[in-house]
Specification:
With 325 residues, this protein is mostly beta strands. It is 2% helix and 22% strand. It contains one helix and 25 strands. The longest helix has 6 residues. InterPro entries: Leu-rich_rpt, Leu-rich_rpt_typical-subtyp, LRR_dom_sf, LRR_R13L4/SHOC2-like, Plant_receptor-like_S/T_kinase.
């Protein structure tokens, strides 16, 4: 029996604990921080966690927690709706399976961090997720989520990071995402998204990391993306994007990684690319670029990786590239 009525913090992460979470943990009624991560715990996450009315922080990632064999119901989320001060939930890397329930929208609006990565989730992202108005980070990567990205995500006005990569999400990228004015990271790579890149993404001046690679996006790369002058990483690789005019990326002065590989881009490579003094990695391979390699590439003094393979480039290799050695 757990009988520690004044206990506020219980950290047991990074051990070799096994078995289940005892339901009597609710006896620690003043508990605020509970971290059971990186153990060998299994069975169900108990509904009695909902009795911890002061709980603010619950982490249980990297265990072997499951859900009911038949329903795979995430009932523990329903119980955690009783914890009105809850700020963080992390149940990543557990074989929970099942669907993300609609009652996720009943969680406290104080919730700021929700991580359910690599949990074997299926089905749609419920529109009720848009009720979590206090959310800062939402991460559901490496699951089997399908359907479209719900427009209700645009209601998470404080969101700073949205990571949905490595799922089976389809449909177009919802323009409601453009309303997330504080978004720093948008990671949607390795899905089945199609249609154009929304031009309004160029209005999201807080973006530092935009990863849309390995989808089925088509049409031209919108010139509005060149408004993201503080962006650090831009990955649009492995899509069906096309541009007949040189993409003038010279204004992206903070750019560290640019990957436009495996698209249908044509025309000349813009000489303005050589002005990106902070660039570490540049991948323009497997497109249809033609003309010469710009002499200006010799100005990429920080460059560590350059791939221009499988294009239609001609002429001689510029001597300016010797500056990169």
């Amino acid at each position: 029996m757990i009988n520690v009525p004044k206990l506020e913090t219980l950290f047991l992460w990074g051990n070799k604990l096994s078995g289940s979470i005892p339901s009597c943990i609710s006896n620690a009624s003043m508990l605020k921080n509970l971290d059971l991560s990186n153990n060998f715990l299994s069975s169900l996450i108990p509904d009695t966690l909902g009795n911890l009315r002061h709980l603010e922080w619950f982490q249980a990632f990297e265990n072997n927690f499951t859900t009911e064999f038949v329903t795979h119901e995430w009932s523990f989320l329903s119980s955690l709706a009783n914890c009105r001060n809850l700020r963080r939930i992390d149940v990543s890397i557990n074989p929970l399976k099942g669907l993300l329930p609609t009652y996720i929208g009943n969680l406290s609006t104080s919730l700021q961090y929700f991580y359910a990565d690599d949990c074997e989730l299926k089905g749609n992202i419920p529109m009720e997720i848009g009720n979590l108005s206090g959310m800062l980070h939402l991460s559901l990567w490496n699951n089997e989520l399908s359907g479209s990205i719900p427009a209700s995500i645009g209601g998470l006005r404080n969101l700073q990071a949205l990571d949905l990569h490595s799922n089976k999400l389809g449909g177009p990228i919802s323009e409601s995402i453009c309303g997330l004015e504080r978004l720093d990271t948008l990671s949607l790579w390795s899905n089945q998204l199609h249609g154009p890149i929304p031009t309004c993404l160029g209005d999201m001046t807080s973006l530092r990391y935009l990863h849309l690679g390995s989808n089925k996006l088509s049409s031209a790369i919108p010139s509005t993306l060149l408004n993201l002058q503080d962006i650090l990483e831009l990955d649009l690789s492995s899509n069906y994007l096309n541009n007949s005019q040189p993409l003038d990326v010279g204004h992206l002065r903070s750019l560290v990684r640019l990957n436009l590989s495996r698209n249908l881009l044509t025309g000349d490579i813009s000489s303005s690319t050589g002005g990106l003094l902070t660039l570490l990695s540049l991948n323009l391979s497997a497109n249809k670029f033609h003309g010469h390699i710009p002499e200006s590439f010799g100005g990429l003094i920080s460059l560590e990786f350059l791939d221009l393979s499988h294009n239609n480039l001609s002429g001689i290799i510029p001597k300016s590239l010797e500056k990169l050695s």
